[in-house]
Amino acid sequence: MWPDWKGQDVAIIASGPSTKNAGVALLNGRMRVIAIKKNIEIAPFADVVYGCDGPWWRSVRGLPDFEGLKLAYDNGVCTEFGLQQVSIPQPKSNELLFDKVGTVGASGNSGFQALNLALQFGAKRILLVGFDMHGRSGEHWYGRNHWAGGNNPTHDNYRRWVAGFEGSAKTISDMGAQVINASPMSELKCFSKMSIEQALQAWRLNAAA
């Protein structure tokens, strides 16, 4: 039921303001893509849509036209819309988990959880897009979350998110995996930065598969 992406390249598309002008379309056909919630609108070719919480899934009625893998944590929407459920056993934890595929660390954000999933699926090179983690409270490339029950991040959220990624960087390196941060304005300092175009060139993925 879980993808086997052993040795493959994966991009994770988050909602930071930098996503809008990052050149996400360049990823189409060149690597696997996980879109975080509303980012499916900017990456409709994604293989996976992941959203931890239920309100967004309800706002899009389970995304019925999307044919890829749909993942969520919220039990209610998984049951209602037939989504594959991800387990988060320790909501206050900021650590990556690897004992069981589909059981991930929390760190308070879907991006961290999606990174944990990509590593569990076997990805060896991961490109983070839109992981800005700073700015005005609740700022995304599309503005603020406006769906019923949706939350917008605060500066305290950003601090926790950054700490979770930075605390996991050595674990990722020790696994032999590489993470590149494609956000030029990101507060994450633990991963090398490249644009999407530069990463595709460095990884020799300029030609679509």
CATH topology: sialyltransferase cstii, chain A
Structural class: alpha/beta
Arithmetic mean pLDDT: 92
Can you say what the CATH homologous superfamily is?
Alpha-2,3-sialyltransferase
**Number of folding domains?**
1
Binned strand content: 5-15%
* Cross-sheet strand order for the largest sheet: 5-4-3-2-1-6-7-8
Number of strands: 8
Summarize the structure.
With 209 residues, this protein is of the alpha/beta class. It has one domain: sialyltransferase cstii, chain A. The protein has helices at 54-59, 75-81, 110-121, 155-174, 196-202, and strands spanning 9-13, 32-36, 48-51, 69-72, 84-85, 125-129, 178-181, 192-193.
What report would you give on this structure?
The chain has one domain: Alpha-Beta Complex (sialyltransferase cstii, chain A). Helix content is 25%, strand content 15%. The protein has 5 helices and 8 strands. It has an 8-stranded parallel sheet with strand order 5-4-3-2-1-6-7-8.
